[in-house]
Amino acid sequence: MAQVAVSAAEAALENQRIGGLQLRVAALCTLVQICDGYDLNSVAWAVPSLIKAWHLPPPMFTTAFLWSSIGILVGALSAGPIGDRFGRRPLLLASLTIFGIASLLSATADSIGTLSLWRFFTGIGIGGGFSGAAALSGDYAPHRLRATMIMATFTGAPIGGFLGGQIVALLLAHYDWPVIFILGGVFPLVLVLALALWLPESPRFLARKQNLSPSHAALLRRLDIDPSESGPVDVAQGNPVRMLFGEGYALQTVLLWIIYFCSLLNLFLFAYWMPTVLNLIGMSPPQAVFASSLRDFGAIFAVLYLGLAIDRIGPERTLALHYAVGAIFIAVIALVTLPYAMLLIMTFLAGATIIGSQTGANGTCGKLYPARMRTSGLGWALGIGRLGGIVAPVLGGYLLSLGLAPTHIFLSACLFALIAAAATALLAFRGSRVPIARVEEAAS
Questions:
Q1: Where are the domains of the chain?
Q2: pLDDT in tens, 262-276
Q3: Treating both helix axes as pointing N-terminal to C-terminal, what angle do 250-280 and 62-86 enclose, rounded to 10 degrees?
């Protein structure tokens, strides 16, 4: 392989200092993830109330869950090539607008069919928002802290799930289920305005542009990049999806897809069915929403240590252990009749290990793929993982229809957690790849 050199611009981006600009981008991307986390859970929060309002059995809502996941799959797979070829900022603005409007329309649903339609479009927005926010926060992070910063922004998803669950639990005591979707639509539409004003484009996209505006040139100078002499930067020149299987990345891509499939199947199995399962074992809808939200609170806690462990020790040992321990907590929830307080604790710990591991997988994916394919790497991993999200509502509904004890439907999650642990450990054999910062051949 030819010796390669790194341009001055690429070197500056891979070694940038963390300052006000980077923190502003991270904060705005975290807000995007908060919207995503809230809207991801909103349909599950509504189902216990809709069962009574529409006089339908719980398995009937499998359709709404399924189309939500299909929408996320479509959004995530589309977001990768769009974000890598045309920019992260327009992807985020479009995604937020789509799922904000679709969430408001969900509040008008009067049947499973119309609810499923609007949740499909909400899912498209969620899928684009997840991968776009992660990729942009990675572009404004140095390589040494990239997993940590991507994970920090991804705390927004469990924060949205946890805080949203607390707010919804209070609101449901006074209002009917449409308030869930109204709140989930207003916040992202307001956030679109904030992003239009304060969110910058990826510096790599700006560095390759001709005739930059004064504000864009000033932004590059803040990153120690001279706009007139920046040199080539690591952005997609061909098909970024094809790159996922070239340049030595094929094994890594396949393993990450297995991890995401298993991890997101578990995430969606809990996200979609846990409020309903807890309602079936005797909790009121507000109690079921509150208890379920502790799963997301656990995931927030995991970020306090997991990102640093991945950056310093590597994902192979860190995440493999995390997934394996999570299988134990899932088994306890599924098999043991717990007092309410102990159920809350187990839900918190399951969230820290299982949902926290998914956040760790996002940080890992953003760190292992170079910038030229980062949105595609994340978007397609999330998209393939959403196949697990499509299986999850069907699996949960089928197991409930068999007449199993409601909590026993979560036993299947133990197997998928162990498969994710094994695939993560196998990342140690992903092999050598073309260096991350390869942008130009060295002069002879």
A1: 4-441
A2: 999 998 888 888 888
A3: 150
Highest-confidence segment of 185-199, 241-255, 351-365: 185-199
- Chain centroid offset of residue 175 CA: 29
Residue 137 CA to residue 88 CA, distance in Å, equals: 10
The residue count of the chain comes to 444
Tokens of 87: 């920019």
What is the spatial distance between Cα 176 and Cα 165, in angstroms, rounded to a whole number? 15
Are residues 14 and 436 in contact, defined by beta-carbon separation less than 8 angstroms? yes
Are the CB atoms for 309 and 81 separated by under 8 Å? no
Query: Are the C-beta atoms of residues 350 and 298 closer than 8 Å to each other?
Result: yes
Instruction: Return the CATH architecture of domain 4-441.
Output: Up-down Bundle (1.20)
Residue 411 vs residues 48, 357, 404: alpha-carbon distances, Å: 22, 18, 11
In angstroms, rounded to a whole number, what is the distance separating the alpha carbons of residues 430 and 320?
Answer: 15
If you search the block for the tokens 């074992």, which residue do you land on? 281
Say which residue the tokens 């599950």 belong to: 44
Phi, psi of 15 (to 5 degrees): -125, 25
As beta bridge partners, residue 440 has 5
Give, in order, the Cα–Cα distances in Å from 343 to each of 42, 48, 162, 164, 324.
22, 19, 16, 20, 20
Please report which helix (H) or strand (E) contains residue 370, including its range: none
* pLDDT above 70 (res 75): yes
Phi-psi region of 236 (alpha: psi -120 to 50; beta: other; left: phi over 0): beta
